[in-house]
Amino acid sequence: MDTSLIFHRLELLIGKNQLERIKTKKVIIFGTGGVGSWCAESLVRSGIRQLALVDSDFICITNLNRQLQTNVHNIGKSKVQELRNRLLTINPVAQIAALKEIYEERTSSLFHLEQYDYVIDAIDSLKNKIHLLATCREKGIPVFSSMGSACKINPSKIRVGKLSETTICPLAKRVRRGLRESGLPEDIICVYSVEPASRPLENSTCGSENCVCPDIDEHNWCEQKARINGTVAHIPAIFGFTLSGLVIMDIVGNVNADK
C-alpha cells in the first residue's frame, strides 16, 4: 500500500511542504478518554507521525458512549494500547508510543516533555492538570488544554480562548486559581464551553460497591472523583478535534487567512 496517498486530500489543502512539516512534529497527549482519544485520531489523520499516548486506565463498559478506541470486545484492556492499535490501522508507518502511566508530580520527569513540539492536556485530575500546565509553561513547551467537557450537550457553546478569558466553566476557574497561586500566567490556550454544567439526574454505580469498572488497576479513578458526571459523545469529540486543529493550525497557519 502506498501510504503517501493517505494524505492526498490534505496535501491539496495545505501543500507538500507544509505536510512534510507536520510529519516532523512530535506530540504527546495526556489522557486518552473522551477528549484525548478523538484528538489523537484527528492528529494521525492530519499527518502527525510521532505521537505519545499517556493514560494508566483500562476500558470500562461505561466508556463506550464517548471514547473512540472502546468497543464491546476490548473491555478491560489498556486504553492507550487499544488506541495505538487503532491508530496504526490508519497510518501503519506512524511512530506511536503507548505509555500506560499516570502523569503526576512524582512521575512527571519520566515523560521528557522537552522532547515534544506540542503537549495536549486532556487530564481529568485537577491537581495533575495544573502541574502539567505549570511544567509546560516553565519549560516553554506549547500546550493546548481541555477544560470540562462533561455535563454539556450543546455544541454551539464550545469556545477556544485564553484560560484567563474563560467564563462559566467550573474546571477552568479552578485551573486559573491553581496557576495564579503558582505565580504563572493564565494565557494558556484552551477549549471550553460556556454552557452551564448540568447535574446528574441520578446517582451512579461507578465508584460504589456495585462499580462495573475493571478491578485491575491500583488506581480506582471512580472512587477518587467527587461526583460521576454525565457525558455525551459529541461534546468531548468536538473538544478533541478542536485541540487537534489548534496544533495543525499552529504548524501550518490558517490556509484561508489571505482569501
Descriptive key words:
259 residues; alpha/beta; 7-stranded mixed sheet; 8 helices
Uncertain residue segments: none
Largest sheet: 7 strands, mixed
Broad shape: globular
Fraction of residues in H or I helices: 25-40%
N to C succession of SSEs: HHEHEHEEHEEHEHH
What are the SSEs and their pairings?
Layout lengths: L7 H7 L1 H9 L1 E5 L5 H10 L4 E5 L24 H12 L4 E5 L18 E4 L4 H14 L3 E4 L11 E5 L7 H12 L7 E5 L27 H4 L9 H19 L7
Parallel strand pairs: 1-2, 1-4, 2-3, 4-5, 5-7
Antiparallel strand pairs: 6-7
Helix pairs in contact: 1-2, 3-8, 5-6
Describe the structure.
This protein has 259 residues and is an alpha/beta fold. 34% of the residues lie in helices and 13% in strands. The protein contains eight helices and seven strands. It has helices spanning 8-14, 16-24, 36-45, 79-90, 126-139, 170-181, 221-224, 234-252; strands at 26-30, 50-54, 95-99, 118-121, 143-146, 158-162, 189-193. Strands 3-2-1-4-5-7-6 form a seven-stranded mixed sheet, with helices on both faces. Helix 5 links the parallel strand 4 and strand 5. Helix 1 (8-14) crosses helix 2, helix 3 (36-45) crosses helix 8 (234-252) and helix 5 packs across helix 6. The protein is globular, with a radius of gyration of 18 Å. It starts with 7 loop residues before the first helix and ends in a 7-residue tail after the last helix. The mean pLDDT is 91.
Please provide a brief summary of the model.
With 259 residues, this protein is an alpha/beta fold.
